[in-house]
Amino acid sequence: MTGTGPAQAATAGSTAPVVVIGPMGAGKSSVGKRVAKALGVSFTDTDRAIVREHGPIPGIFADRGEAAFRELEAEAVRDAVTRGGVVAVGGGAVTHAATREAMAGARIVLLTVSPEAVADRIAGSDRPLLADGGIDAWQTILDARAATYAELAHATFDTSRRPMSHVVDEVVAWVRGSTPPDPRTSAGTSTPADTRTSTGTSTPTDTSPGAGRRTTTGGTP
Length: 221
What we know:
alpha/beta
C-alpha cells in the first residue's frame, strides 16, 4: 500500500509518524494530506489503501462483516505507521486493540467536529454504519468512541466551521514543536492531550514526558 503526496523526507526519520483519528466527517483525510504536504512527508489514507487491496468498504461490511473489516484495517494501519509520515485512519479504527497497539509511539492527532457542522459533510454518505441512521447514528457512534479518542490523543483540534487551512497550520505547528512519545508506552496511556479552541489559541503546559500539553474549553469530543 502506498500513500499520496511526496516521498517521506530524510529529516522525517527523526520524528514519529503522525496518526490522525476522529469521528466520521471530521476531515481526517483532507487535513492529513495537507499536513503531510506541509511537512514534506508521505501521506496514507488507510481506508483508501483497504479499498485498493480489498474492494469497496460497504461491500466488505456486507460480505464479511465489521469484524473482518477491522482486521484488514489493523493490518493497513500497522503497515502505514511502519512506513511513517502522516496516516489518516477510519473513524472506527480505534475500536480494535491491534490497531491501537499499532499506533504506539506515533503522534496521535484527534480531529473533532460538532453534529451541526458534520451534518452536511455526511449527507448522502455510503458509510455502512450510517446507512440507516444518518446524523443520529453518527452521534450514537461518537458517544461510544469518544472516551477512546480522548484517551489516545496527544493533541486535539476542532474542525467545526473553520477554514481547513487554519486547522492544518495548527497541526503542523504542533507536530514541529512536539517531542515523539515513548514507543514503549502504549498509545493513549498518557495524561490529557493538547487541545485547541475554535480560534486556535491556547497556552502550552507540559504535563507529561515527551509532549507539550494544552487545555481548552473548545471543541466537541
